[in-house]
Design a protein that fits this description.
Blueprint lengths: L11 H10 L3 E5 L3 H9 L4 E4 L3 H4 L11 H12 L6 E5 L9 H15 L3 E3 L7 H9 L4 E6 L5 H4 L9 H17 L3 E5 L3 H10 L4 E4 L7 E4 L1 H4 L17 H18 L10
Parallel strand pairs: 1-2, 1-8, 2-3, 3-4, 4-5, 5-6, 6-7, 7-8
Length: 271
């Protein structure tokens, strides 16, 4: 690990340079100090403190229940573990939709209380006013189009979005609107790969995909999914890079056995 003070921070400008150079951007979620520190030291470019914490940390069925206070708690924990990565925090459901003044207040709280570097929010034309107001305070904004989990009850399903021509056209238009409004990047979730590649080529800002194919400028996954901690989630776009479910349950099982048989602690593990 590089020594403190010598670590080159990833900024929104660095991400723009990466897109211009054709260098792919690697992004993962994190929600706590310990894992964020590991992810950061491994060299990740962007850490997203996602509202997916509602699912993987709190056990909720959707992202809707998580509150602004809870997002700030998770973001603060992550920021304390990070030296290099750009930390982006999701604005949770109900903190920005339909009220640009509340959106600005929510974003300011996240930035002031957590020390994060940017916020992310879902939607296109319908949230442009909120995006503009947040940007007036100098807060960087990442957009999010395609499957927008906060709108799950509107869609009623997590199926691939923008397969039909009308919805695809709206997504193209929304991407241009987000760029024009001043977003520094856009996440595209679960849309056809051809459409995602087209959108990435049509805008100058980085486009990060999740279930959006390989023709975009970078990729993002939920950390607990790609590490194999969660085993119930099996979308086509998910690649598991580890099986920590097996590792952790196996380790806990061996610990239980050692405790019950008197094998732990041994003579070397006592004072």
């Amino acid at each position: 690990m590089a020594q403190a003070g010598k670590v080159k921070r990833v900024t929104t400008h660095v991400l723009q340079e990466m897109k211009a150079a054709g260098e792919r951007i690697a992004m993962l979620t994190s929600y706590d100090f310990s894992l964020a520190r590991l992810v950061d030291r491994a060299g990740i470019d962007v850490i997203l403190v996602g509202d997916s914490a509602s699912n993987v940390m709190a056990g909720h069925e959707t992202t809707l229940p998580i509150t602004l206070d809870q997002m700030i708690y998770h973001a603060s924990s992550v920021v304390r573990g990070v030296e290099r990565a750009l930390v982006v925090v999701d604005l949770p459901f109900g903190t920005y939709q339909g009220n640009s003044k509340e959106a600005l207040g929510s974003a300011i709280r996240i930035m002031k209380e957590s020390g994060a570097h940017a916020v992310k929010l879902e939607g296109g034309k319908e949230v442009i006013e909120s995006i503009g107001r947040i940007l007036t305070a100098g807060i960087p904004v990442m957009g999010h189009l395609g499957l927008t989990p906060q709108s799950i009850y509107k869609f009623g399903t997590y199926v691939v979005r923008a397969k039909e021509q009308a919805e695809a056209e709206r997504l193209r238009a929304d991407a241009l609107l987000l760029e024009e409004a001043g977003c520094f990047a856009i996440v595209l979730e679960k849309i056809p790969a051809e459409l995602a590649a087209e959108v990435a080529a049509s805008v100058q800002i980085p486009v990060i995909g999740i279930g959006a194919g390989g023709g975009v400028d970078g990729q993002v996954l939920v950390l607990h999914d790609m590490l194999g901690i969660n085993t119930e989630f099996h979308p086509r776009f998910l690649r598991r890079y580890a099986d920590l479910h097996e590792v952790i349950t196996g380790a806990v099982g061996r610990y239980i056995d050692d405790v019950r048989t008197g094998g732990f602690p041994n003579q070397d593990e006592q004072y």
